[in-house]
Amino acid sequence: MISKKVANVQEALKGVKDDMTFMFGGFGLSGIPENAIAELVQLNVKGLKCISNNAGVDDFGLGLLLQGKQIDKMTSSYVGENDEFERQMLSGELEVELIPQGTLAERCRAAQAGFPAIYTPAGYGTEVAEGKETREFDGKMYVLEYAFKADFAFVKAWKGDAAGNLVFKGTARNFNPNMCGAAKITVAEVEELVPVGTLDPNQIHIPGIFVKRIFQGETYEKRIEQRTVRQRD
Amino acid sequence: MLDKNGIAKRIAKEVQDGYYVNLGIGIPTLVANYVRDDIEVEFQSENGVLGMGPFPFEGEEDADIINAGKQTITTLPGASFFDSATSFSMIRGQHVDLTILGAMEVSEEGDIANWKIPGKMVKGMGGAMDLVASAENIIVAMMHTNRAGASKLLKHCSLPLTGVACVKKVVTNLAVMEITPKGFKLLERAPGVTVEDVQNATEGTLIIEGDIPEMDL
Predict the structure, then answer these.
(1) Chain B residue with the nearest C-alpha to that of A79
(2) In chain B, fewer beta carbons within 10 Å around the N or the C end?
(3) Considering only CA atoms, which of B105, B120, B134, B137 is closest in space to residue A100?
(4) CA B110 to CA A224: how far, in whole Å?
C-alpha cells in the first residue's frame, strides 16, 4: 500500500505559494475543504487564481480568502451569495470568469482524464462563447473549452484511508471527485480517516491513485446556507 | 391572473409519467408540489441528486443533502447521489426529459436570458446554460411583465443570452404560449385574463388563432 497520509493540514499544504492556481471542491458551502481554506487564510498567500463553482459567503468558505484579498481571479459558475465578492468584482479588484456549471465540471474532468479540451453545446451563441473556437457536429454547434491547469486541488470527502481512497456523502460529493487528480497535487481532507482495509473496495468513489496527500480535518462546521424544513402533521 | 403557485400548478400538468425533471430555482421549485401523485416522476437537482424528496422535518436537516438552491432536502426511495460531471452528463446527454426554469426575458425565437443584468446584477449562470443548450423540452416559468411593468416576452432579448432558440413553451401569470417559427402562439389564458390583456403585455409577436380557452387548473 502506498501511503498518502500526512500528519496535518500544515503538512498537506506544503509547497503552496503566492500566485498559484487552486481548485476547490464544494457546491455552495456543502462539501468544501474547510480545513485547507482555514490554513490558506493562516498562510496568507496572495494573488491566487481559484477554480470553484461558488465563492462562499461573506464570512465562510472562499469568502474568507476574499476578505483577506488573497484572490486575484475566480473561475466559477454562480457567485450570488457574497457581498464582498460583488464589491471586489464591480471595483475591478477581482477578475471573474463565469462559465456554465457543466463546463466547469467537465474542464476539471478533462484535466483529470488527460483530455486537452472538450466540445460542449453549453453557452453557444452567448457571450461565454465569444472568442472561442466553435464547431458543428451533426447539425448542432459546440464550443471548445480547455482542460483546467492547476497547481493544487483541495477536495473534501466523508471517509478516506491512508491509500487515498475516498468516499463522499450525499450532495457534498459535487465537484470533489472531478477535481481529484486534475491538478499537480491533490490534497484530500476527510471527516474520518479509517484504517486501510476497512473501506469496501466496491464502494470507493475515488481510488487513491488520484490523491497525493490525505489528512483528517480537525473540525467541520458544515454550515447550512438555506435551512428549509416542513412541518410535522 | 395567476400567482406563482398558480403558474407552478399549470406547469405541473406538463409533467408526465416516467419523466426525469430538472427544476430551476424560484417558481419551478414549486412545481413539485402540484405533480399528480398517480404518476412516477423523479426530480434531478444538478448539484448531484436524482430522486429528490420534500424538505426535511425540523431537526433532520443535513448539510450534506441539499438541492441546487442550497436548500436542505430529503431523498426518496430509489434516489442516487453523483458527482457534477455525471450530473451534467445526464443533462447534456439528454437523459433528463423536462427542464423547467425561470427567465428575465424570452424572445419569440425561443432565446432566453436569465443570468446577468450588465452593471447591476451578475450572479452567474450556474447550470442554466448547460440545461438550455441540451434539453429537448424546456418550459419557462415566469411573470409576464417585470416589476416596472415591461413585457418579458420580446421580439429580441435585450439582456445577455443564456441560450439560443431553445425554449419550447412559456407559462406566465397571464397565459400559456408555445414558441413557433412565427412567434409566441397563445394556447391558453389564465382565469380572468382576456386575449387583449395578454396581447397588451406581450412585446413580441403573439399569434392568436381561433378561440383561446381558459386554463383548466
Answers:
(1) B123
(2) C
(3) B134
(4) 36
Q: Is B105 a catalytic residue?
A: no
Residues of B in contact with A99 (CB under 8 A): 125
**Exposed, middle or buried by CB within 10 Å (0-12, 13-18, 19+), for B27?**
buried
Judged by CB atoms closer than 8 Å, whether chains meet at B133 and A124 is answered as yes
Helix axes A101-113, B84-92, angle to 10 degrees: 120
pLDDT for A58-112, tens place per residue? 999 999 999 999 999 999 999 977 888 888 988 889 999 999 999 999 999 999 9
Contacting residues of B for A226, CB less than 8 Å apart: 66, 69-72
Q: Which helix (H) or strand (E) holds A215?
A: strand A213-216
Q: Kindly tell me the sign of the dihedral angle through the C-alpha atoms of A190, A191, A193, A197.
A: negative
Of B14, B46, B105, B108, which residue is the catalytic one? B46
Out of A122, A128, A175, name the one closest to residue B84 (CB). Answer: A175
Please give the grid coordinates belonging to residue A32.
Answer: 468544501
Residues B141, B132 contacting (CB under 8 angstroms)? no
For A31, A51, A202, A214, B182, the CA distances from A168, given in Å and listed in that order, are 9, 20, 14, 14, 49
Q: What is the pLDDT of residues A169-203, one digit of tens each?
A: 999 999 999 999 999 999 999 999 999 999 999 99
Residues of A in contact with B56 (CB under 8 A): 228-230
Residues from chain A contacting residue B162 (CB–CB below 8 Å):
126
Cα–Cα distance for residue pair A145/A128, rounded to 1 Å = 10
What is the grid cell recorded at B55?
A: 424538505
Nearest CA in chain A to B50: A171
Task: Find, in chain A, the residue whose alpha carbon is nearest to that of B94.
Answer: A121
The answer to pTM > 0.90 is yes
Across the interface, of B48, B124, B164, the residue whose CB is closest to A79 is B124
CA distance B74 to B156: 40
Q: How far apart are CA A156 and CA A137, in angstroms?
A: 37
